[in-house]
Amino acid sequence: MALTKEDKQELLDAIRAESQDIGQLETVSSLSGIKGVTALKGDELVSVPPDLLGNGSSGGTAIPDSTIEEIINNMH
């Protein structure tokens, strides 16, 4: 069943009504209590745990907490 133009507009309106502008998100100054940082992996949206960012366990260079906090603070 193909969607009509009106169906598509209704669907888009419903999605927009449930969406949150990232500019309206709370800015934090600490990673304490953070469960994950949203990132893109290719075309896929993923959540990265803060401990993975800071300890270099993935085989990469560890990123200092201050750098991670700066990235988070400048995301909007």
Number of strands: 2
Question: Largest beta sheet, briefly?
Answer: 2 strands, antiparallel
- Low-pLDDT sequence parts: none
Sheet/helix structural class: alpha+beta
The arrangement of helices and strands along the chain is: HEEHH
Mean pLDDT: 79
The strand line-up of the biggest sheet is: 1-2
Helix count equals 3
Give the termini separation.
39 Å
Helix percentage range: 25-40%
Q: Could you describe the 3D structure shown?
A:
The chain has 76 residues and is of the alpha+beta class. It is 38% helix and 13% strand. The protein has helices at 5-18, 50-55, 65-73, and strands at residues 37-41, 44-48. It has a two-stranded antiparallel sheet with strand order 1-2. The longest helix is centred in the first third of the chain and has 14 residues, at 5-18. The protein is elongated, with a radius of gyration of 18 Å. It starts with a helix and ends with a helix. The mean pLDDT is 79.
Keywords:
single chain, 76 residues, alpha+beta
Task: Write the SSE topology.
Blueprint: H1 5-18, E1 37-41, E2 44-48, H2 50-55, H3 65-73
Antiparallel strand pairs: 1-2
Please outline what is shown here.
The protein contains three helices and two strands. The protein is α+β, with helices and mostly antiparallel strands and 76 residues long.
